[in-house]
Amino acid sequence: MADSTNPSRYKRVLLKLSGEALMGEGKYGIHPPTLTRIATEVREVSQAGVELAVVIGGGNIFRGVAGSTEGMDRASADYMGMLATCINSMAMQDALEKQGCHTRVLSAIKMEQIAEPYIRRRAVRHLEKGRVVIFAAGTGNPYFTTDTAASLRAMEINAEVILKATKVDGVYNADPKKQPDARRYRTLTYMDVLRQNLNVMDSTAISLCMDNKLPIVVFDLTVQGNIARAMLASGEIGTTVGAPETSWA
Question: Are the CB atoms for 184 and 200 separated by under 8 Å?
Answer without folding.
Answer: no
